[in-house]
Amino acid sequence: MSELKQFNLARTSLLTFIEDLDENILDHQFKYFENTMRWEIGNTLFFDEKLLFVSQKSKSIPTEYAELFSSDIKSSDWKITPPTLDQLKENLLVQQNRINSFDELFWKSNVKFKVPHSHVETHGDLLIMLAHREAEVLGKLKAMKQVYENEK
Q1: Which of 6, 15, 36, 82 could form a disulfide with 75 if both were Cys (CB 3.0 to 4.6 A apart)?
Q2: Structural domain range at position 99
Q3: What is the pTM of this model?
Q4: What is the tally of structural domains in the chain?
Q5: Predicted confidence band at 117 (pLDDT cuts at 50, 70, 90)?
Q6: Is the CB of residue 68 less than 8 Å from the CB of residue 80?
């Protein structure tokens, strides 16, 4: 399976899952999870943007997302209002389209930074890693939803 197919499968699965979420569950702080569902979704968007569009100094997502969704930030630290679920979904879709617009040469080109604990050499390798990470986030979101529904 090509890198883009793997990524699109993971991203589409994530988008399909969050389509059925409502705003009430997004900011629930779960006992066994460090962050909220909104943070997990936003962090996925921010992380992919930061790694895939590093050389382009992307302005495709709002700059305040760094204050909300960086890995060193917790949702309990937020001082500004986070985006709505609809805004995050739109950002994820637009980002997916931008990722799909890269040409074959880009995916074969080497990344210019080291990825910790990984054997990432090309942008294609990076996309595989990001697809895997999105699948992990989807699993976490499903677990969070299940806990939420059982707590009711």
Answers
A1: 36
A2: 3-151
A3: 0.93
A4: 1
A5: low
A6: yes
